[in-house]
């Protein structure tokens, strides 16, 4: 059922928003090893498999951009989170297309 989410954004659009000084709420749903290999500065990490038990760690009142490696797992996370009432946006293309800074 991947792809059943309402909103999407590209990595370049996110970089542009960050360069404009916008404060973004970013959730990375990749596995620990992927996270450790580099992630968007300031992102929160909850692996996809733990979203069901840890979604309360996400603020449901603030729009959250969801990130993975390619955009597929983040799409699944968006679908689940939207069904629970969260405001989410899928980052299409994932970290494979990310051109912004990363932290380790």
Strand arrangement in the largest pleated sheet: 1-6-5-2-4
In total, how many beta strands? 7
When the domains are counted, the total is 1
State the distance separating the first and last CA atoms. Answer: 32 Å
Structure commentary:
The chain is an alpha/beta fold. The chain has a single domain, classed as Rhodanese-like domain (Oxidized Rhodanese, domain 1, 3-Layer(aba) Sandwich). Helices cover 29% and strands 19% of the residues. The protein contains four helices and seven strands, in the order βαβαββαβαββ. The strands form two sheets. A five-stranded parallel sheet has the order 1-6-5-2-4. Strand 5, helix 4 and strand 6 form a beta-alpha-beta unit. The chain is globular, with a radius of gyration of 12 Å.
């Amino acid at each position: 059922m991947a792809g059943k989410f309402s909103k999407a954004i590209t990595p370049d659009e996110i970089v542009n928003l960050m360069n404009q000084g916008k404060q973004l709420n970013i959730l990375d749903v990749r596995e620990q090893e992927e996270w450790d290999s580099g992630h968007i500065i300031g992102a929160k990490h909850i692996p996809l498999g733990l979203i069901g038990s840890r979604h309360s760690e996400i603020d449901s009142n603030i729009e959250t951009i969801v990130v993975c490696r390619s955009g597929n797992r983040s799409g699944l996370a968006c679908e689940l989170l939207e069904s629970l009432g969260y405001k989410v946006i899928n980052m299409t293309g994932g970290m494979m297309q990310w051109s912004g800074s990363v932290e380790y």
